[in-house]
Amino acid sequence: MRFSSREVVLAVVAFAAALFGVTALLARPRLDEWKELRARQRAVVQEIGADRSLLQESEKWAALLAEKSELLPQHPPDKEVDVYWLSVMDLLALKNGLSITKRQVGEEKKHGDIYELPIECKEWGGRLDALVHFLFELQSEGAMLDVRQLQIRPTDKGLLRGRFTLYCAYTRGAEAEEGAGE
Question: Does residue 129 surpass a pLDDT of 80?
Answer without folding.
Answer: yes
